[in-house]
Write a structure and sequence with these properties.
Blueprint lengths: L2 H11 L3 E4 L5 H12 L4 E5 L2 H10 L8 E3 L7 H12 L6 H7 L3 H10 L5 E4 L5 H12 L9 E7 L10 E5 L9 H19 L4 E5 L10 H16 L4 E6 L1 H5 L1 H7 L11 E3 L3 H14 L3 E8 L5 E3 L6 H17 L1
Parallel strand pairs: 1-2, 1-4, 2-3, 4-11, 6-9, 7-8, 7-9
Antiparallel strand pairs: 5-6, 5-10
Helix pairs in contact: 1-13, 2-13, 4-5, 6-7, 8-9
Bound molecules: acetyl coenzyme *A.
Acetyl coenzyme *A binds next to helix 7.
């Protein structure tokens, strides 16, 4: 069974409530019909009720039996405004500001997850990554013991000799523009944990750089060296090593030459990029030039699962990310 089918089967085994704040949008409506009819999750659409119903008819999506939450009329809105005010008053949010903010479907849906009225949230067909992350960071915040929210892509490669039978995790490709050594270490540990929990494989984490085992000296390399040390100290039970160049990390013969004593070189299945420029460019190169499927970005480190979509996503992408979010909710 392929990875996505596995996620769908897992999601079906313990139904979770997943909220879609872009409830009036064509792909979301079509995805909601599939998620509901295939019983992948209990889907909740947030938005203007009339608009959702009109658009569902217009786009031929059958949303019968699917819950709609309209922030303008929902009985939850008042409580959410109070909750948001309490959470953000120290940051200058007044009561009347909070009442306005929760009318925004992105904030309303985030409050649903915060209040356990939904187990997870997926958006991004219309909104940017920042539009999803900001309410998440402000309201849901990080899980206990986690300092940094980050993200990973599940890369499904054509060449099955790489990674774990062609599956690899790339991080962070979507959230932290320029992590310091502490943050990079936290990203490495979180991604190793995601590999274990979600992908069910033993992580071999390569901390990527333009240097392998001291071959180059530069402050950018020093950051990766420090992050590697910190990550190893945080989780000595995980196989995390660096600094490694990409070829040393994934090609056995090169790994043997450049970092012979490394337990990860040549067999990495988790790649941790030094910053967002490298990570974002890196996953897109592999997707476009090597024809890999890139699933994500999947967020990690939030207290509850919320996930992003690309604005170019398909209906199928939404269904898939909802299934993964539901499985993350099961594992939470
Ligand atoms: N982990 C934990 N907390 C964080 C993080 C993080 N990574 N980043 C910010 N925070 C906290 C802040 O401390 C702040 O907390 P507070 O308000 O309680 O004090 C809160 O989250 C909000 O922070 P802001 O300063 O308002 O948000 P910021 O301007 O830092 O934006 C964001 C955060 C949205 C994640 C920003 O870093 C960003 O835009 N990242 C890049 C997203 C992007 O464009 N990705 C590329 C495209 S995606 C793709 O191609 C697939």
């Amino acid at each position: 069974m392929d990875f996505v089918s596995k996620m769908k089967e897992l999601a079906k085994s313990d139904l979770k409530k997943i909220v879609l704040p872009e409830g009036n949008e064509e792909r979301n409506l079509k995805a909601a019909e599939i998620i509901h009819s295939e019983k992948i999750a209990e889907v909740i659409l947030v938005g203007n009720r009339e608009e959702i119903e009109t658009n569902a008819k217009k786009f031929g999506a059958n949303i019968q039996g699917i819950t709609i939450e309209d922030p303008a009329t929902s009985e939850r809105t008042k409580g959410y405004a109070e909750g948001l005010y309490e959470l953000r008053k120290k940051k200058g949010v007044t009561q009347s500001m909070a009442e306005n903010i929760v009318l925004d479907p992105m904030y309303f849906a985030t409050m649903m997850v915060k209040n356990d009225d939904a187990h997870g949230m997926v958006s991004g067909a219309v909104h940017t990554t920042g539009d999803l992350l900001r309410p998440g960071l402000q309201i849901i915040k990080t899980a206990p013991g986690i300092s940094v929210v980050s993200s990973f892509f599940i890369m499904l490669l054509k060449d099955k000799s790489f990674g774990e039978d062609g599956q690899m995790l790339f991080a962070d490709c979507a959230v932290n523009p320029n992590p310091n050594a502490d943050e990079l270490a936290a990203i490495a540990v979180a991604t190793a944990e995601s590999a274990k929990r979600l992908m069910k494989f033993d992580p071999k984490v390569a901390m990527l750089s333009f240097s392998s085992y001291g071959s180059a000296k530069h402050e950018l390399v020093t950051k990766v060296v420090e992050a590697t040390k910190k990550a190893q100290e945080m989780r000595p039970d995980f196989m995390i090593d660096g600094e490694l160049q990409l070829d040393a990390a994934i090609v056995e013969s090169v790994g043997k030459k450049k970092a012979a004593s490394s337990p990860v070189a040549g067999k990495a299945n988790v790649l941790v990029f030094p910053d967002l420029q490298a990570g974002n460019i890196g996953y897109k190169l592999v997707e476009r030039l090597a024809g890999a499927d890139a699933i994500g970005p999947i967020c990690q480190g939030f207290a509850k699962p919320i996930n992003d979509l690309s604005r170019g996503c398909s209906v199928e992408d939404i269904v898939n990310v909802v299934a993964i979010t539901a499985v993350q909710a099961q594992n939470a």
